[in-house]
Amino acid sequence: MLLIIGSLIVLASVGGGYVLSHGYLPMLWQPYEMIIICGAALGGFVISNSKHTLIEVFKSLPKLITGSGLNKALFMDLLSLMYDLFTKIRKEGVIAVEADIEEPDQSPIFAGYPAVFKHKVLIEFVCDYMRLISSGNMQPHELESLMDAEIETIQHELEEPAHAVTSVADALPGFGIVAAVLGITITMRDISAPPEVLGMHIAAALVGTFLGILLSYGFVGPTAIAMKNEAHEKVKAFECVKACLIANMNGLPPQMAVEFGRKMLFSSVRPSFNELEEHVRSR
């Protein structure tokens, strides 16, 4: 939603300021310039990225409008899920959760948190490391190093769409200049035309430069930053799980282990100690 609001603010500010300065708004509508700029940018985008990255970019864009779902409620469910797993291990032993982590879709523990279960990569991360813990062959520092390496890989993969869109934003001013130069060549062809005709041609050419810069700094660049911020929010979920698992391996009780995970979250989505405690007790 903020993506839409921000875009409307940009359009209203630029267009409104232009009109209030006695500008002629229809003059900014140059569809052929848009074809040159946007088409060239799209072509460069396709050339420079893999099929996987292209798919991830177009999958990420709707989430900027609807939201990723990584809110306080989801993180409370995630911490409650970790608490339930740790409690079962503490009462029945680490072997007791083998059935849950081998087939999480059949597990009553995981079934109690459908919002978390939608994030398949996160559930796989939890199950993989719970499986390694149940093997009993790894020390906490060894497991932590492995998790750090995987989280770094996950972050790199999650940020790839943002990097791809950033490259488009960087290229748009250049493509705006390309459109402007092509417009000037048309003007030079009609150099013998009356001044008012030449003026229209030159104005249309200058709009190309304007559109390239506006699209870059007003829309595409901010979209890339929003995608990168969303990637950081997703990574926090994995760091939260890591903190919980390491604390549990070090012998801390479930309530304290999830407290370590809670402290890893951004303040905007971090539940308070009392909120989390009440949520865990209510399950």
UniProtKB/TrEMBL annotation:
Originating species: Oceanospirillum multiglobuliferum
Protein's name in the database: Flagellar motor stator protein MotA
UniProt keyword Membrane, yes or no: yes
Transmembrane regions: 31-49, 164-186, 198-220
Entries under Pfam families matching the protein: MotA_ExbB, MotA_N
Keywords: Cell inner membrane, Cell membrane, Cell projection, Chemotaxis, Cilium, Flagellar rotation, Flagellum, Hydrogen ion transport, Ion transport, Membrane, Transmembrane, Transmembrane helix, Transport
Domain of life of the source: Bacteria
Motility protein A N-terminal domain residues: 4-93
Keyword set includes Nucleotidyltransferase: no
Any one GO CC term of the record: plasma membrane
Membrane topology listed for this record: Multi-pass membrane protein
Stated family: Belongs to the MotA family.
NCBIfam families, per database record: MotA1
Main localization (coarse): membrane
Coiled-coil features, chain-numbered ranges: none
Domain MotA/TolQ/ExbB proton channel: residue ranges: 135-239
Biological processes per GO annotation: bacterial-type flagellum-dependent swarming motility; chemotaxis; proton transmembrane transport
InterPro entries: Flag_MotA_CS (IPR000540), Flagellar_motor_stator_MotA (IPR022522), MotA-like (IPR047055), MotA_ExbB_proton_chnl (IPR002898), MotA_N (IPR046786)
Subcellular location: Cell inner membrane
